[in-house]
Amino acid sequence: MVKQTIQIFARVKPTVRKQQQGIYSIDEDEKLTPSLEIIVPHDLADGFVNNKRESYKFKFQRIFDQGANQETIFENIAKPVAESVLAGYNGTIFAYGQTGSGKTFTITGGAERYSDRGIIPRTLSYIFEQLQKDSSTIYTTRISYLEIYNECGYDLLDPRHEASSLEDLPKVTVFEDPDQNIHLKNLSLHQAATEEEALNLLFLGDTNRMIAETPMNQASTRSHCIFSIHLSSKEPGSATVRHAKLHLVDLAGSERVAKTGVGGQLLTEAKYINLSLHYLEQVIIALSEKHRSHIPYRNSMMTSVLRDSLGGNCMTTMIATLSLEKRNIDESISTCRFAQRVALIKNEAVLNEEIDPRLMIIRLQKEIQELKDELAIVTGEQRTEALTDAELLELEKLITSFLEDQDPESRLEVGTDMHKIHHCFHYLKKLLNDKKIHGKSTVSSEIKDQDCQEPLKEEEYKKLRDLLQQRNNEINILVNMLKKEKKKAQDALHSSGMDRSECGHSQSSPFPPGNPEGLRTLPSSAPTQVQDVNTFGYRSSLLHRKTVMREEMSLGRQEAFEIFKRDHADSVTIEDNKQILKQRFSEAKALGESINETRSKIGRLKEEITQRHMQQVALGISENVAMPSMPDLLEEKLRSQLEEEKIRYKMMFTRLKALKVEIEHLQLLMDKAKVKLQKEFEAWWAEEATSLQVNSPAVNSLNHMKPFPQTPESQRERFQLLCNQSDVNARKILPSPCPIPHSREPSSTSASLEDSIPEKPASSIPLTGDSQTDSDILAFIKARQSILQKKCFQ
Question: Name one Pfam family in it (predicted).
Fold first, then answer.
């Protein structure tokens, strides 16, 4: 709760004519409260004996002289009130003064310059700016605009204002609930999500206000207006909601009819204005008196609406507007006296928080159900019918979720129905018995598993033997392929040596024109030799490559597929399509970036043209000059650039569509080539495996092997013996660890290769004779043996 008196401020209106010196003075001492002194010189017409006061001194929180601008007024008066509204407190700012003293200019602002904006538009801008910064809270903003004209309330935001007369519009009436809260009927609340929507509502209401010309003011507002901002805020996940409202009040100016001499409708309006201000002053006087029991709020509609703002739950600020000209001295003194009485009123502002009604309804419903259940237990009124299937299923779900919940404080909520409680106990007993039976069956299944372990090991042994046979077939196929690769490499080296010798004999004379074979052989030998040197590096890198098409292939089969694909007739076509596809992708990407840049440039040019056009219109309105008939050169230049960018955008977009079609066609061709290559490899692999199973002596020896004993120890010894025998055979055929370098002469290379090939036993695996190739094969065999050994002992 915040207890404070109503804050009062004074603002002096600039005078039209040069004012008389010494009519007022402002004392702004930092240590003391600022004070305004109004000096009234003696009138000689009253005679020499004149006991009237010559000086009147009034204290304010702050006094703004004639040079104060609208920004200063907002920062010192309205901004603290807006901050308290954002914090959840109610706020009110009202301007009071005689007609023509600057109340409407202070509250609403002037329409000539942007810097003349008043408190209402600046407050709206500040509030929405703060709402955008605070993203952790959900805010709802609603606007209402009330006009009190001749003691009758009207909704300024009613859309029927333009088509109906004032008498035909529904009047806003005041209702009071038992808690003395005021409710207004026929006053609409409009939600505003942005600052622009709120300002549009303000301008709409200002258009519908009652304004007339009087001797004191050319555009005098003839009604009291209350612009209200209703703000609701709630944090996500919180049950409390904060409500706050801000009243920005522009009171109609008081005037002395004897001085102005108005009549007719203006006289009627002046009577109602002065009467409502009189009732406002009565309320202020009653509130300032300590022992006053009755406050006459109901005397007028304005005091009823502003009940919270005057001595209630609100943080209120008053602005006293003064016109300190000689003819208005009496009215200015009356305004200052009114402000001093207002400063005596104390308000008690509280934080407006309440629980979310929807959450409150849910909590009360739950509480009612719990009370009904307790009452049913006490009275003994239980149900007699049996539980339905849906209820039984729901209970079983509740029990399952209760057992799975790891929270030790969780509860099983089934109500007070004894049928449900008994069913829960029966279901829990059933679950416990099923668990015991399952435990016994698990023990018996383990015993059966031990009994069935021997046949399972026999079946596992058969699977391992079939797997070993499959791997031997793969190794044989790879050895044959390596032999073919080696033969190709030797032929390439031999042909390159012959070409170099021929070139040495014919350096002095060029090739004869009728014999182009030499020209063809020389360039083809170099890539062949490079291919021979990089063959094994290429193969070793292929062993680590995994693709989606071959994710289920074995390692040997993958290597065979890579070599098959490399030697296939369509491999060149596939690689060419890959390169073309890559180029088209990069070209499409660059073209897409260019299209985006062009689109952004088109948007910027459109914005510049619109802004240029708006500037010309605004300039013509401000200077009251007609639009020039000649076209604007800058606008024409911008429009020509816009057309060029549009043409460029269409051309690039057409090119991008053509690239898309070409890319899709290339992808389709590559997919067809890959499918064809995979099918041909599968057919070739099946043919090679069939021929090796028929002719391989290793396969025949495996088929004539005797089975091992069925005990686990004998299986392990047998498999270890098989692994050791493979290692011995590998050591028998393993050549020197140093690889034999390739010689430049084909004859010496062939001789060294023939010398390094050892004799193969009948049970050993065939090798190529080349040391590097044989090392690769043996390393591959050892890796396979280690994998099989791990599987056997798992």
Answer: Kinesin
